[in-house]
Amino acid sequence: MSTTSKLVTFSLTASDGMARCGRIDTPRGEISTPAFMPVGTAGTVKAMYPEQVRETGADILLGNTYHLMLRPGAERVASLGGLHDFMDWQRPILTDSGGFQVMSLAKLRKLTEKGVTFKSHIDGSAYELTPERSIEIQTLLDSDIIMQLDECIALPAERKEIERAMELSLRWADRSKTAFNNQQNRMLFGIVQGGDDAELRAKSAAGLKSIGFDGYSIGGLAVGEPQDVMFRVLSDITPDLPWDRPRYLMGVGKPDDILGAIERGVDMFDCVHPTRAGRHGHAYTRFGVINLKNARHKDDHRPLDEASPNPNCRRWSRAYLHHLVRTEEILGAMVLSQINLAYYQELTAGARAAIKAQRMTDFAAETRAAWAAGDLPVL
Amino acid sequence: MSTTSKLVTFSLTASDGMARCGRIDTPRGEISTPAFMPVGTAGTVKAMYPEQVRETGADILLGNTYHLMLRPGAERVASLGGLHDFMDWQRPILTDSGGFQVMSLAKLRKLTEKGVTFKSHIDGSAYELTPERSIEIQTLLDSDIIMQLDECIALPAERKEIERAMELSLRWADRSKTAFNNQQNRMLFGIVQGGDDAELRAKSAAGLKSIGFDGYSIGGLAVGEPQDVMFRVLSDITPDLPWDRPRYLMGVGKPDDILGAIERGVDMFDCVHPTRAGRHGHAYTRFGVINLKNARHKDDHRPLDEASPNPNCRRWSRAYLHHLVRTEEILGAMVLSQINLAYYQELTAGARAAIKAQRMTDFAAETRAAWAAGDLPVL
């Protein structure tokens, strides 16, 4: 596959061991990698204005095909000018293919060679999602980076079942490539499946490479397996992927998952965790995760982290944040979502700088040591 | 009462009929009147950052003694530097006395001459609120404008019951004045009670004036009576209040309540309505109130109000706002709270300008005509 006429391109700027630093250039702006993509499930990153997402340092966000096809509907988004105008986020957007949420959320799913039919978890109405329809939806949304439809299964699973889903995903990859029709203003990513089986993962990667994609996603992880299994799969698979294409680990994860995956050669991440954890009163900081609901904070006049570059970590006392969480005030969800997204961006920005400086190992060790040292002592 | 050494002062700058334009100068900043005060019930204006509240044009916000005494507690707020630092709102704050919420929210209330004992609606723990304790709490919160404890009763009510509550409120006013001890950096407001009875209202106002307060609140309205009754009470009572003191109509209201009250000589307002309505998908605009949940908006590419000075009214389609409301996204609550608070500020700013220009009657008529004309025709 030639990318010479592509308007969306990837280039590596540095590497350190397996870890890579690069950028994706798009007509809507540049994405520095390793990149964390906040999740804007239904056309909004929950509890955040678009400009606040950008101010955390995010270059790109993720939209969910499944959620958007149900509400407000892909054709409606297109008639309103596409997802960027709809939500007023004028920078790049990556969309998933819908397959993962169909499997995890929809009711009465039926999977065939052609695709998947399912009923909406909202109102029970029937939909069909095929590789072709998924590309069509993502094109209607005007996504900048499009995913093939795949079948993602939970782990642990029987090898035969993992293999069947991987083979189906490969055939869908081929159909997705055809349906995508080499649009120059977007990237299309294939998705490596194969569960925790190294041989099946390698076979999936080889199949995708022979089809040829603009980037390679790693799916079917963070679906129930321990972190060491995930890391082993990543260590096995990234050497099989083209060096000059971005690698995206789907739906991952907590900060230590991301750090370990960067060390294993992953370039892109998304996860609902930072915003969901924020809505539940958890703050990610250089001290690790802090549960602000805990009574230890109720009289604590200290800021969350007085050395943080993020003003929201410095302007209020822990007692105030505790109060917001305990009283279930929306501002608590807003502030903690912002704090967590900013911390994720601080982490990936730190990794980028470390890779450029050839000190990724030290950066990872220092970061883990700070997490392990834990929070400030109780006041 | 002398106010010569007060650090918080009120001055009138213009009047037009009964309507007045003025300002309150405080060490924490100036408050232009007529003023609408957003309600920061539990130390946050719901779904708004403090700077977003300020950007709508608010000079002052209201904190609720009842909510804050229960959580996080007045002594705790004081030990954390006062309410302004606690929530990081460095401009003036007015606090109510707690009486209204004790009556409307608390469990097992018991009212005596001394004060009111009650159990928290949150955890059932017991509290006592007296005129002296209410002043103490509001001083601990470091409020800039303090209310006396009063007894507020719902309408309709028997005259005898209205009179009893009004007389008790007057005695509590006297004790509040003594407990307040003429603090120079705050104002103390007495509260006119007397229900819908002109004679009792006049008696209440006379009693308060003879005690002498920095400002006069009008309580016991918007408690079940029709708007014309409220307006009649206001028309009767404001001429009885000192011309050189601010008048504050407590807990009111919708935009047309506020407009009518300004015409009747009221200077200050607070209400949870704009933020609560926002959380329920209602937007206040120059077209009147718009229910964004309504399906008429689902394909509407037009902004809420393209001529609004508020960017949030122009940046997204009605279809997007409809989508946020339908999917119950927090951003919907955030944006509509902001839009409503900004509209309330636009309304009071418009009234101030009209009073200065001696065209309040025209401004009120034009505003009401625009509301009556209603929303844009369905697309």
Automatic annotation (TrEMBL), chains A, B:
The keyword Glycosyltransferase applies. It catalyses: 7-aminomethyl-7-carbaguanine + guanosine(34) in tRNA = 7-aminomethyl-7-carbaguanosine(34) in tRNA + guanine. Keywords: Glycosyltransferase, Queuosine biosynthesis, Transferase, tRNA processing. Substrate binds at D96, S97, G98, G99, F100, D150, Q193, G220. It is an enzyme of class 2 (transferase). Residues 251-257, 275-279 are annotated as: RNA binding. The active site is at D96, D270. Pathway: tRNA modification; tRNA-queuosine biosynthesis. GO terms for biological process: tRNA queuosine(34) biosynthetic process. Residues 17-371 form the tRNA-guanine(15) transglycosylase-like domain. GO terms for molecular function: tRNA-guanosine(34) queuine transglycosylase activity. Catalyzes the base-exchange of a guanine (G) residue with the queuine precursor 7-aminomethyl-7-deazaguanine (PreQ1) at position 34 (anticodon wobble position) in tRNAs with GU(N) anticodons (tRNA-Asp, -Asn, -His and -Tyr). Catalysis occurs through a double-displacement mechanism. The nucleophile active site attacks the C1' of nucleotide 34 to detach the guanine base from the RNA, forming a covalent enzyme-RNA intermediate. The proton acceptor active site deprotonates the incoming PreQ1, allowing a nucleophilic attack on the C1' of the ribose to form the product. Belongs to the queuine tRNA-ribosyltransferase family. Homodimer. Within each dimer, one monomer is responsible for RNA recognition and catalysis, while the other monomer binds to the replacement base PreQ1. This is Queuine tRNA-ribosyltransferase. It comes from Devosia soli.
